[in-house]
Amino acid sequence: MAADPSSSSTGQHADDFCAAPPEDARQTAMSGPLNVRGERRPPPMQRAFSRQVSLGSGVTVLGMDRGGRNGGGRGQRALPRSGRSLGVLNHSGALGAAGGDGAARRGDFSMFRTKSTLSKQNSLLPTRIRESDLELPTHVEDQSVGRPAEDPLNKSVPAGRYFAALRGPELDEVRDYEDILLPKDEVWPFLLRFPIGCFGVCLGLGSQAILWGSLAASPAMRFLHVTPMINVALWLLAVAVLVATSVTYALKCVFYFEAIRREYFHPVRVNFFFAPWIAAMFITIGLPRAYAPERPHPAVWCAFVLPLFALELKIYGQWLSGGKRRLCKVANPSSHLSVVGNFVGAILAARVGWAEAGKFLWAIGVAHYIVVFVTLYQRLPTNEALPKELHPVYSMFIATPSAASLAWAAIYGSFDAVARTFFFMAIFLYLSLVVRINFFRGFRFSLAWWSYTFPMTTASLATVKYAEAEPCFASRALALSLSLMSTTMVSLLLVSTLLHAFIWRSLFPNDLAIAITKDRQNGAVKPSGKGKRTSKRVHDIKRWAKQAPLSLVSSITKSNSADKEEEEKTE
C-alpha cells in the first residue's frame, strides 16, 4: 500500500541522519535521492531547515514522540541555545509529550560536587531513559564502541578554552554562541554563585584599615587630627568580612570542590587564590597600635606566607616551564596579585624581625614583577586576556611598585633612593590612568572591583611615607588627595555592594564562567586525521542549513553552472 507523499514529506526533517524512512515509502519512491544509509527516500517539499537541529550527534532523537515510532507522526524538540543542552537534560525535558508541556527543567548541580564522577552521575543523560529510547545513528554507535564515556569535569579545562568561550576583562561572561553545563535561567545554589573574587572585599577593607592607622600616627599628616577609632572600626569590619568570606568559601571547598578546580584553572581567577593570604597579612599589619604587640610572633608570618609561597611555586613554575599556561598566554592585569603578595610578606617579615626573609621575598617579587610588567606592557599577540578597553582592572599596575617601595622602606628603615624609584613609577602609572578616566565608564558592577581598590590605597600609603621623608606642602597635598580618592572609591563600592545585596538582590549572579564545556561542540573531543574531514562536512551542512531554501538552491545552481563552464573550457 503506497504511502501519502505529503505525509511522508512532512515527516522528513533534518533527523534523517538518525532514522530511516518507512518501508512502504522506500518502495514507492525509488527515484528519490539517497540518504546517509544508502536508501532512497522521496524528495522533500521546499521548506526551511531548522537552525537548532544537531546534525552531528543525533541528540534530537530525544524529542521524538513515542507514538510516532509505530507509524504515526513524529514531533521534534528544538535544542535551546540558552546553555541548557548538556547538563540539564532530565526526565521532564527528555521524556515530555509530543506537543511539549513546557515543564521546567532543572540543572544537575551534582556534577560540581566534591568527588563527583561520571559513574556517580550515570552520565549527563537522564537515568530513567532506557536504551531502547536512544536511537543513535550507525556512525555514532561505531565511534562510541569500545570507548568509555568521558566526564566533562575529570580533566582540567585548557587555558585557551576560557579565552574562546568567555569574554570581558575578567573572563566572566559567556559568549553568545557557547553552551554551558548548567541552566542560565535558573538560580544556582548559593555556594556555586560565591566566587573567589569575594576576597577582594577583604583586600579593600584591610588596606583601608592600614591607611587610616598611618594617617592617625604619621607626623607629616598630624594636621588632619585623625582619630585612631576609625582604624579600629575599619579593622573590626575587615576581620568580620574576612572570617565570613573564609568560612563560606571553605564550605564551597567541602561541598563543591569541582567548582574550585574550575576557578583554579581560570586564567584570571587563579590569581585571586593569593587574596586570602594577602588580606590576612593586611589585617595583621593594620592591627590598631593600642592593641598591637611591639613585635608579632614569627608563627603568624609562617602561617600566612608559607601557603602563599607554595602557591607561587606552582604558578611561577607554569610560567617558567611554558606550555599552555605560559605567562605570555595567561598574563592579565590581575597577575599582579600573584606578585604583590611577596612585598606584603616582606613588610610583615620586617615587622616580626626577620629582615633576611623579607629581603628574600622582595627579590622574588621584583624579579617576577619585571617579567609581568614587560609582558603586559608589550601586549603580545598571544596575550588574549588583556582587554582592549580600559577597566578598573588596570589599577593593578600601580599596586606592585607601591608595595615594593613600602617593603623596601620597612626592611631597611628609610625611604631611600630605591624606595623612591618604585614610588615614582607608581605615581606615573597612577597619573596615566587618571587622565583616562572616561574609559572606566559603562561597566557593570562586580565584586571583583574590590580587588582594584587596594592598589589605590597602597599608593596612598606610599605617598604618606614619602611625605614623612620629604615634608613639604606638595607631598602632603598629594598624600591627602590620594587618600581621599581611595577612601571615596571604597565608600562608593561599599554602598553599591549593600544595594546589590539587600535592595536589588543581585550581588551573587550565576557564575557562568565555571560551567563552560571543555570544547565548543558540547564536550566532544576535537577530531584529528580523517575525523577532521568528517567534521568539516558536518560544518558545511550546518552552514548551508542556516541559509534560506531559495538562496540555498541558487547557490547550488551557481556552483553547478560554474562547474559546467570549467568542463567546457577544458574540452
Fraction of residues in H or I helices: 40-55%
Q: Which segments are poorly predicted (pLDDT under 50) over 5 or more consecutive residues?
A: 1-31, 46-85, 87-105, 116-150, 522-536
Relevant CATH superfamily of the domain at 190-514: Voltage-dependent anion channel
CATH architecture of the domain at 190-514: Alpha/alpha barrel
Instruction: Enumerate the strands of the largest sheet in spatial order, edge to edge or round the barrel.
Output: 1-2
Structural class: mainly alpha
CATH class of the domain at 190-514: Mainly Alpha
- Which fold does the CATH topology of the domain at 190-514 refer to? Glycosyltransferase
| Beta-strand content estimate | under 5%
| Shape estimate | globular
Separation of the first and last Cα atoms: 48 Å
Give a brief description.
The protein has 571 residues and is mainly alpha-helical. It contains 20 helices and two strands. A two-stranded antiparallel ribbon has the order 1-2.
Give the SSE layout.
Layout: H1 5-10, H2 23-28, H3 91-94, H4 118-121, H5 138-144, H6 159-165, E1 166-167, E2 173-174, H7 199-217, H8 228-255, H9 257-265, H10 275-285, H11 298-321, H12 327-330, H13 337-352, H14 355-378, H15 399-412, H16 417-434, H17 454-469, H18 473-503, H19 530-545, H20 549-570
Antiparallel strand pairs: 1-2
Helix pairs in contact: 7-8, 7-10, 7-17, 7-18, 8-9, 8-10, 10-11, 10-13, 11-13, 13-14, 13-15, 14-15, 15-16, 15-17, 16-17, 17-18
Biased composition (Polar residues): 1-12
Subcellular location: Cell membrane; Endomembrane system
Pfam family, one: SLAC1
